[in-house]
TrEMBL record, chain A:
One GO biological process term: D-methionine transmembrane transport
Origin species: Consotaella salsifontis
Compartment annotation: Cell membrane
Alphabetically ordered keywords of this record: Cell membrane, Membrane, Transmembrane, Transmembrane helix, Transport
Residue ranges of domain ABC transmembrane type-1 in the record: 13-205
Membrane topology annotation: Multi-pass membrane protein
One Pfam family cited in the UniProt record for this chain: BPD_transp_1
PROSITE patterns according to UniProt: ABC_TM1
Lineage: Bacteria, Pseudomonadati, Pseudomonadota, Alphaproteobacteria, Hyphomicrobiales
Any single Gene Ontology cellular-component annotation: plasma membrane
The UniProt record lists the keyword Zinc-finger: no
Family: Belongs to the binding-protein-dependent transport system permease family. CysTW subfamily.
InterPro entries in alphabetical order: AA_ABC_Transporter_Permease, MetI-like, MetI-like_sf
Name of the protein described by the UniProt record: D-methionine transport system permease protein
Transmembrane segments: 16-40, 61-79, 85-105, 146-168, 188-210
Automatic annotation (TrEMBL), chain B:
Protein family: Belongs to the ABC transporter superfamily.
Bias-annotated ranges (Polar residues): 1-15
Region described as Disordered: 1-22
Record InterPro entries: AAA+_ATPase, ABC_transporter-like_ATP-bd, ABC_transporter-like_CS, ACT-like_dom_sf, MetN_ABC, MetN_ABC_transporter-like, NIL_domain, P-loop_NTPase
The UniProt record lists the keyword Membrane: yes
GO process terms (BP): amino acid transport
Residue span, ABC transporter domain: 24-266
Pfam family, one: ABC_tran
Protein name: Cell division ATP-binding protein FtsE
């Protein structure tokens, strides 16, 4: 493989990492709190808001059930509004982020719901406010599970970011389709797949390690 | 079972209490839970409960599963709100407080749990620090407060371990240290020793007793183990289907249980087990030639008095001992003997025994 091709792969990898990093960051920043709210806002919970819970829950479901590729096309006007264009790496970040928020929200919701209700009860008995319970009990106790949720999110994002390549989003997916498929360069296709696999492996192992470190529920720490 | 004499009711708590006004006072407290099934009415978990908890006491709350024990105790720190009535904790009606007011009260009421409820992500030290952080105590001050607490519960050398690395007894000690961190006036304990083995239970009870004596802390303790009540409770209240059916100081209640629930509970601890050859031949009819099987309960100073020996010597009535046990409740002797007495001389024997302050109960007859 020529140096030129390697250079292309490096540039595409950089673009993919950029897309994934930005959408993961924004997605977690918005989806995390949304997930916490979903997990704590039913009747009798910390922030009871039945109606808001219902409406947000339905919205989350709606976005999650829309196939990603349709989402990309459907929000093009919005994407243009935000980034001024509908193609390229920056433009791809918009649908990626929109898809990430509900994904993270549901994962974080279930992580938070797994926290032993007895701990919330104990904190209530100590006179903790609902916000104190979130920050001192729910988030720290759900941390190992939330780390795994973020890991899963990033891994999924790597896959989705390859998909936006199909609509001119740049990055590794774009490279694979343009060179590997359209110009029929199987070695390019292979290289793209290998890089994607490596990325996923690194992300997954790092996530597993961090989660295990945060988990104090085992005997040997 | 047919008691020959209705055993006298436990002496009720006198109106004037040397300990002062009660630390916790339930006044006509009713708690209903909304119906779950269709058509079903509200579920009444507590109905018109009046109960005063003495300052500085260790009060045991016993009752069958579902009797409302947890509900009662959770009213004290407002985890549960009464449907009607007042719950006065150290002069404040908790039921009238809003969430914010409750948070302040909760800092003066500690609580320990059956499953400890320690944060897995915090060390023993961190767990004890939690209530102080919640109360907004500055970090430097927290550090000064925790070490003596861990010392008190005997865990100063375990402060950096996580709950998963501690034994059940150690976890409950952390739970106790945590509950004491904000220097509460009342400690609520909901089945705090139920997940522990007998030896560990004893150690944890000893710690509670020590804390009660040293800090003057009132302990309100739910348990289904009578052993626990017998060992440390100065007072006891018996709940049955949402009502207090019996209450008073532990010794009076245990030595003269008036309610069937109390008796059933006591069976396991102070009750004596009759040998099978007696129970299998026991009849309820007092036909001629049969002997009465009589349960004699010795309490107070007479518990060590050889009343039955006198019975033989003074009246010439011979008794046949079938089973017996001598026990201790709140440090006072308490004995139970099951004897067989000839039916013909049952009445004089009974009068003789009861005249000496013992209670008698005919359980049945054997040939
Ligand atoms: N939140 C609730 N909603 C509906 N019913 C409830 C609720 N909490 C308690 N109850 C009912 O109230 C009754 C008393 O419950 P409580 O937990 O006080 O019993 P308990 O005496 O502590 O029993 P156990 O010994 O099993 O812990 C039970 O029948 C229970 O089903
Ligand atoms: Mg209970």
């Amino acid at each position: 493989m020529s140096a030129n091709l390697l250079w292309l792969i490096a540039a595409a990898t950089r673009d993919t990492l950029f897309m994934v990093a930005v959408s993961a960051l924004i997605g977690v920043a918005l989806g995390g709190p949304l997930g916490i709210f979903l997990a704590t806002s039913r009747k009798g919970e910390l922030f009871p808001a039945e109606a808001a819970n219902r409406i947000l829950g339905m919205t989350v479901n709606a976005v999650r059930s829309t196939p990603f590729i349709i989402l990309v096309v459907a929000i093009i006007p919005f994407t243009r509004l935000v980034t001024g264009t509908s193609i390229g790496t920056a433009a791809a970040i918009v649908p990626l982020t929109i898809a990430t928020i509900p994904f993270v929200a549901r994962l974080v919701e279930s992580s938070i719901r797994e926290v032993d209700p007895g701990l919330v009860e104990a904190a209530r008995a100590m006179g903790a406010s609902p916000l104190q319970i979130v920050f001192k009990v729910l988030i720290p106790e759900a941390k190992p599970s939330i780390i795994l949720a973020i890991t899963l999110t990033v891994v999924s994002l790597i896959g989705y970011s390859a998909m936006v390549g199909a609509v001119g989003g740049g990055g590794l997916g774009d490279l694979g389709i343009r060179y590997g498929y359209q110009r029929f360069m199987p070695e390019m296709m292979l290289a793209v797949v290998v890089v994607l696999i490596a990325l996923v492996q690194v992300v997954q192992s790092t996530g597993d390690l961090l989660s295990r470190r945060a988990d104090k529920r085992g005997r040997k720490n | 079972m047919q008691p020959l004499s209705t055993s006298p009711h436990a002496a009720s708590t006198p109106a004037t209490d040397p300990a002062g006004p009660p630390i916790v006072d339930f006044q006509s407290v009713t708690k209903r839970f909304p119906a779950t099934g269709e058509g079903a009415g509200d579920f009444v978990a507590l109905s018109d409960v009046d109960l005063s908890i003495r300052r500085g006491s260790i009060t045991g709350i016993i009752g069958r599963s579902g009797a409302g024990k947890s509900t009662l105790v959770r009213l004290v720190n407002g985890l549960e709100r009464p449907t009607s009535g007042r719950v006065v904790v150290d002069g404040t009606d908790v039921a009238a407080l809003d969430e914010k007011g409750l948070r302040a009260i909760r800092r003066s009421v500690g609580m320990i749990f059956q499953h400890f409820n320690l944060l897995s992500a915090r060390t023993a030290y961190g767990n004890v620090a939690l209530p102080l952080e919640i109360a907004g105590v500055p970090a430097g001050e927290i550090r000064k407060r925790i070490l003596p607490l861990l010392d008190l519960v005997g865990l100063s050398d375990r402060s950096s371990l996580y709950p998963a690395q501690l034994s059940g007894g150690q976890k409950q000690r952390v739970g106790i240290a945590r509950a004491l961190a904000t220097e509460p006036k009342v400690l609520l304990s909901d089945e705090a020793t139920s997940a522990l083995d007998p030896e560990t239970t004893r150690q944890v009870l000893a710690l509670l007793k020590q804390v009660n004596a040293d800090l003057g802390l009132t302990v309100l303790l739910i348990t289904h183990e009578m052993q626990v009540v017998r060992e440390i409770a100065s007072h006891v209240a018996v709940l049955d289907k949402g009502s207090i059916v019996e209450e008073g100081d532990t010794y009076s209640v245990f030595s003269r249980p008036a309610h069937e629930t109390t008796r059933a509970f006591l069976e396991g601890v102070t009750g004596v087990r009759l040998p099978a050859f007696v129970t299998s031949r026991m009849e309820s009819e007092a036909a001629a030639g049969r002997s009465a099987v009589v349960k004699v309960v010795f309490t107070g100073p007479t518990a060590t008095d050889p009343v039955l020996a006198h019975l033989g010597r003074d009246l010439g009535i011979d008794v046949n001992i079938l089973a017996g046990a001598v026990d201790e409740i709140s440090g006072k002797p308490f004995g139970t003997l099951v004897v067989a007495i000839d039916r013909e001389v049952l009445e004089p024997a009974r009068r003789f025994i009861e005249a000496r302050g013992l209670t008698c109960e005919v359980m049945g007859y054997v040939r």
